[in-house]
Amino acid sequence: MRFFYALTILSLFVSLQARENPFKPVIDNTVLPIASNQVKKAPPFKSVKVSLPNDARVLTSIAVYYQSIDGSIKKRVVPVDRSIDWHKPLLISQTPLRESPAAAKKAKAAKKPQHKETPAKREKAEKTYRPLPFLQLKVGKKSVRIVTKDKKIRSFHLSRPFKVAVDFRRKAGFLTKHIPLSGAPFKSIDIGNHNGYYRVVVTLDAPYRYKIIQEKDGYTLALP
Fold it and tell me: What three-state secondary structure class fits 68?
């Protein structure tokens, strides 16, 4: 019996010695805080340097934790599998790297002065579609203008894929219209006929915050 107790104490001592600090709680890095559904306001990200320990030799992957549009915390892992020099820190940046003096001079010479966008310039940059006699669509980089005299009944969005639907009051008969779009973030527009109203559905390439703004000639789906 004494031998059993001695063996138990020895095993416990070896187990404690295997950890650098046996009284430090074990933290599971895969466990994230529960989503608060409150989108955190933060200043724009520029860059950050990450110094690696001196035993680092191969960068296997990079894990990024980010707050989603619904306020939840998510994780994205990017595989790398490349050898590294631990003396040099990793630089994570969302801004372009500094150009050489010659390239910067060339870019400055080719750069044209920027002018404030006017309604006329915005309309010129938009692509116009006329799927129905009473409906016109003008698609820009971050907006879809729905030109119509019909009254908006409601608007809502769907997920997977992300779609914004706007209903307008009108008794009309027509077949469903489908307009494919080539440029991001808008993928396509569908117009469907229903009993007493019709629906304009804009499909996007990802979830976005958006606004439905009433204009003189209709409504605008605007992205930030």
Answer: coil
Question: Considering only CA atoms, which of 2, 76, 72 is closest in space to residue 32?
Answer: 72
Please name which of 220, 198, 202 lies closest in space to residue 211, comparing C-alpha atoms: 220
Question: 79 forms bridges with which residues in the sheet?
Answer: 61
Measured CA to CA, the distance from residue 173 to residue 196 in angstroms comes to: 10
Q: Compute the CA torsion angle 103, 108, 112, 118 (nearest 10 deg).
A: 100
Report d(CA 168, CA 155) in Å as an integer. 9
What SS3 state is found at 103? helix
pLDDT per residue as tens digits for the range 33-82: 444 556 667 888 888 999 999 899 999 999 999 888 888 899 999 999 99
Nearest to 139 by CA among 170, 91, 179: 179
Contacts of 113 (CB under 8 A, 6+ apart): none
From residue 61, alpha-carbon distances to 32, 76, 147 in Å are 19, 10, 48
DSSP per-residue codes, 14-46? HHHHTSS-TTSPP--TT--PPP-S-PPP-PPP-
Spatial distance between the Cα atoms of 171 and 173, rounded to a whole number of angstroms:
7
pTM (predicted TM-score): 0.61
